[in-house]
Amino acid sequence: MKVIEIDRSNSEEFKKFQQSLLAAQAVEYKKARKKQLESIIDKIVEGRRKYDDFRDAEEILNEELEKSATITDSNMLWPTFLTLQTVLPFKLKTLNYKDIYLNYTTELKCAVFSDLWNRGYYITEGVRFGGDFLVYFGDPICYHAVFIVKCVTDSESFSSSELVAHGRLGTSVRKRFVLASVVDGTVCYVTVSWIDA
Fold first, then answer.
1. How would you classify residue 130: left for phi > 0, otherwise alpha for psi between -120 and 50, otherwise beta?
2. Where are the domains of the chain?
3. Judging by DSSP bridges, how do beta strands 147-151 and 133-136 pair with one another?
4. Quick check: helix, strand or coil at residue 96?
5. Which of 11, 63, 136, 150 has CB 3.0 to 4.6 Å from 131, enough for a Cys bridge?
6. What is the second-level CATH architecture of the domain 105-192?
7. Phi/psi of residue 192, nearest 5 degrees
8. pLDDT in tens, the chain (197 residues)
């Protein structure tokens, strides 16, 4: 995945370009909104007739279109209608996503997150449970987390009391505590379980 970064050193050119995108998006959105309204205009006209509005359908359609098809700087999805023919008045630089994300995390966490995501799990931040990630079988709105994942390097070591604490924590919150690491380029997992004897 690559990210495009815009060089905004010439701010006047950039503002003109942004205004041209706003105008283009307004035109395109109005066309799309008109199609939506045309598909339900009969119901709208029927509803208006109940309130003694006997104007023709075209006039009502145009009124509804003006009310609901306004694009401004604050609600524009920038740049939705950028096409290959658009001439950019500024330079674009291509950045690798790792250049950005590694400012906030580590390669190990990126590798573990990517592996879990590719296996179909849902993932959220797990610091409040002593890990790096909380892992779910489905959407976190509908499911409870099943794993607390902590990313560890091969140079890290744990005392036996720390491992016991991780196992107890996982058991007390009804989750499995998992240690994740990368070994020979492959993400590996070890589950720490607490068993009452």
1. left
2. 2-96, 105-192
3. antiparallel
4. strand
5. 150
6. 3-Layer(aba) Sandwich (3.40)
7. -105, 115
8. 444 455 555 677 777 777 777 787 778 778 888 888 888 889 988 888 888 888 988 998 888 888 877 777 666 665 554 554 455 555 656 666 666 677 778 889 989 999 999 999 999 999 888 899 999 998 888 889 999 999 998 888 878 888 888 888 888 888 999 999 999 889 999 988 776 65
